[in-house]
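User: Reviewer 2 asked us to show a designed sequence for the structure in our supplementary figure. I'm pasting the structure tokens here. Could you produce the per-position amino acids so we can include them in the response letter?
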């Protein structure tokens, strides 16, 4: 049976406990929810006792750590497909409004080293890696996989990283005012 051109193929049988930890954003579609000049962007996932996942997204902009925390959970608890929902409350400095998005694992290597994450709308795409650098050949393979799933890969923007990556504890934090600026294109 041929795949519908709008369908996105997702990974099945992801070991959520193995997926936990830090992932660096290697490339993504630019988002108005992130500072345009953000660098060292990363996500840290922590499994909670109730089976949900704590999500900490961080980026550095103008020398300050910008972050938002949320919760991820399986879209369908009875499915083995890696389709998750992620919920954040905005604005980060006064969390009032819940915003939920799709987090679908489109590709994950067997060592849980690099991943391709997308959404069925194809409006967002991320290439993630356990390290802040990814081999160019692997990067190109992930781009081709995304292209094959119908994503407009011309929108991918590589994320700048410094070596060594910054430590969270050493960075002055912005309590979320960045979020307001980002929705206005700053």
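Assistant: Here is a per-position design you can include in the supplement:
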């Amino acid at each position: 049976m041929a795949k519908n051109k709008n369908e996105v193929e997702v990974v099945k049988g992801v070991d959520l406990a193995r997926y936990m930890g830090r992932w660096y954003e290697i490339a993504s579609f630019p988002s108005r929810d992130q500072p345009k000049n953000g660098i060292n962007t990363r996500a840290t996932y922590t499994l909670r006792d109730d089976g949900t996942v704590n999500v900490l997204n961080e980026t550095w902009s103008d020398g300050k750590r910008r972050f938002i925390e949320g919760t991820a959970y399986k879209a369908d608890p009875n499915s083995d497909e890696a389709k998750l929902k992620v919920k954040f409350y905005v604005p980060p400095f006064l969390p009032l409004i819940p915003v939920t998005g799709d987090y679908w694992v489109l590709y994950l290597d067997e060592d849980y080293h690099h991943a391709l994450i997308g959404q069925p709308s194809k409006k967002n795409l991320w290439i993630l890696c356990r390290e802040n650098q990814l081999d160019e050949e692997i990067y190109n393979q992930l781009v081709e996989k995304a292209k094959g799933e119908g994503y407009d890969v011309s929108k991918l923007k590589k994320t700048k990283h410094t070596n060594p990556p910054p430590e969270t504890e050493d960075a002055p934090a912005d309590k979320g005012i960045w979020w307001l600026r980002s929705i206005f294109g700053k």
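For the response letter, you might also mention the following. Residues 136-148 form the longest helix (13 residues). The beta strands are 21-28, 39-47, 53-61, 64-74, 83-90, 97-108, 114-118, 125-129, 157-158, 173-174.
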